[in-house]
Every structure is written in C-alpha cells, then in structure tokens.
Amino acid sequence: MAHAELQLDNQICFRLYTAARLVTQAYTPMLTELGITYPQYLVLMVLWEKDNQPVNDIAHRLLLETNTVTPLLQRMEKLGIVNRKKGEQDKRQQIVSLTKKGKEMEELAYAKIPAGMGEQLSACPLKLEDYFHLAQELDSIIKTLKK
Amino acid sequence: MAHAELQLDNQICFRLYTAARLVTQAYTPMLTELGITYPQYLVLMVLWEKDNQPVNDIAHRLLLETNTVTPLLQRMEKLGIVNRKKGEQDKRQQIVSLTKKGKEMEELAYAKIPAGMGEQLSACPLKLEDYFHLAQELDSIIKTLKK
DNA sequence: TAACAATAAATCGTGCGCGATATAAGTAGG
DNA sequence: CCTACTTATATCGCGCACGATTTATTGTTA
Question: Cβ contact (<8 Å) for A23 and B141?
Fold first, then answer.
C-alpha cells in the first residue's frame, strides 16, 4: 500500500458508511416489533410532522429520489400504514396520508425507540455536546454535497 | 407531531444515513470512470493494504457479513479485478487476490479520487481538525455498536 | 389553441445489505 | 474413528438506492 490517502483507516466516508449501517442495525429490533424498516420509519417521521404530503415533498425532505420513495410508499400502503390518493388541484401528484394505524404507531415508537437507542448507546463515551457537535459537522457535509 | 424525540431534525441517525449516501454519491463519478462501485472500492482498499486474504478477513475488516461480500467478490471476479481460489491448508476458505488490473487501479484511484473529493468538499466550512474530530466521534459510535 | 417544454410519479434494471438457510470442511469428545 | 459441533462460504429472498426511461398532467408560448 503506497498511498496513505487510499487507506481505509484514513477515510471519513468509510466511517460514515459503517456508522450509518450500525446505527440503522441498532434501530432494527424496535422497528421489527413495529413491523417496519428504517426508511419506512423515516417516512413516518415526515408524515407525523405534517400529514397529507405529495410524494415529491416527502422525497425532498429525505433527500431521496421519487424512484426510491414511490416503491417504499407502495409497500407501506400494503402494510396499511399510509393511504395514497390523487391530488385534486394537481392530478399528477399522489397525496400520501397516515392511516389510523400509521398515526397510532407514533406512540408505540415513542414508547420503544428513544429508550432502546439510549440503552444501546449507553456504553458510548460521547457526551451530549459531542452529539451536538457531530450533528453540526454532518449538517455541514450534507449542506455542501446536496444539490 | 407531539414528540420532539421523534423529529427528523433531532436524529443523528438520519444525518448519518444522509451524509453517508451523499458522500458515496460524491465518489461515484470517479469510481464510474474506474468501472467500479463504492463497496467494490472498499474491497480494493482492503486488498491494496494486504493482498491474498480469505473472504472472512475482508468481511471483518469492512464490518460486513459474508453474504454481502461473497456476491461482491463474484462480481469483481467477473470484472477481472480479483481472483478467488480455494485455500490450501483450509479448503473451506476462498483466498482473494488482486489481478494485474486490480493492482493497477490503485494508481488510477490515487490520481483521481483524493483530488476529486477535495474539490467537491472545498465549499465545506469544516477544517482539518473538524474532520479529525468527526472521525473520532464516528469511531466511538462504531466501537460501541459493533459486535 | 396547438405545439412544445416542464413537472410528478411510476417503472425497470442492477447492486448492495442482511436475515435465514444450506453445504462443505475442519475440530473435538467419547 | 465415528458422531456432534463449529466454522467458512455460498445461496435465497426482500427491501432499499439510484441511473435511465416512460407516462400522465400541467404550463407556456407562439
């Protein structure tokens, strides 16, 4: 290995890739209890914040493309979590809304997930201010790279 | 939205998920020139560091399962980047080695990737010490969550 | 208002990740 | 030395991500 720049240990990207996978894995047990995946949980958070949004708005909020979000929403519709119906003023849009089940999952998530993640990260030496700092650094990278 | 803990903007995980995707996307143009994907690039970095490794060692280095790495290596073999041959002392193992093409890609990567990433992140306000700090925080999370 | 460009969503193909399972080879205990 | 257990890899199925293309609807402009 001639080039230090190409070493795995020197790569921020590999750390991001790995940390994202491991944190998502840490969510998985709680999400499996709810019957959903992590990307589906992200969609739910978007809709809990504001219900009745077109596919595009959800995709933009998550910085994803509609060709990722559309199949995701179709699966969530099959699960009975969301409804999709044509927009009335703009018939190209699909307006996504929470079902009763989708709304009720917020309380279930609140009961399980923050505590479950807290427990799994309890052994992590990072302090609250470290997480705050980390969030700012990630936001800088995200802001720089998003189109 | 009743619960601040469940808001997207308060989630470290969503930031990790997004930052990892966007940084990977930033690599993509350079990697496409080389004809490989980001996970394939990770495998190459592992092999550039130390050639002739069994599947398990590569998987452990990347914190991935063999059911992810095996098909990845099969695709890389088809691309003529690596060879796989049965281990001699332990016939269960597949020893993975770089082909001539795989070795030559290190220089191509070194010529393109550090410069390309530097350019794309040039607008990012983070300083060298911020990246160092970020790396440490990510390492803490990774160390805590890996099995 | 007819033609054309732009936009919203969906569809298709490929490559990951990963849980679950299978297969083959090595190891250990009786 | 035979059976049981462990380990290394592979296979299968599903759900993302994402580039590329398609379809339907809206807007724009001559």
Answer: yes
How much helix, strand and coil, in percent to the nearest 5, is found in chain A? 70, 10, 25
CB-contacted nucleotides of strand D (7 Å) = 7-13, 15-21, 24-27
Residue B21: CB less than 7 A from any atom in strand D: yes
A139 to each of A41, A57, B17, B18, B141, how far by Cα in Å? 20, 20, 12, 9, 17
User: What would you report as the CA-atom Rg of chain A, rounded to the nearest whole angstrom?
Assistant: 18
Compute, in degrees rounded to 10, the torsion defined by CA atoms A112, A52, A35, B66: -100
| pTM, 2 dp | 0.95
pLDDT tens digits, A102-141? 999 999 999 999 999 999 999 999 999 999 999 999 999 9
Which residues in B lie closer than 8 A to residue A130 (C-beta atoms)?
Answer: 137, 140
pLDDT digits (tens, 9 = 90+) for B15-25: 999 999 999 99
State whether the beta carbon of A71 lies below 7 angstroms from any atom of strand D: yes
Provide the 8-state DSSP code for B10.
G
B84 touches strand C (CB under 7 A): no
Contact assignment for A15 to B125 by CB distance below 8 Å = no
Maximum CA pair distance of chain B?
A: 61
The owner of tokens 């009975």 is A80
Please answer yes or no on whether B137 and A130 come within 8 Å at the CB atom: yes
Q: Residue A34's domain spans which residues?
A: 4-146
- Where residue A35 falls (left for φ over 0; alpha for ψ -120 to 50; beta otherwise) is left
Split into its structural domains, chain A has a count of 1
CATH number for the domain that contains residue B60 = 1.10.10.10
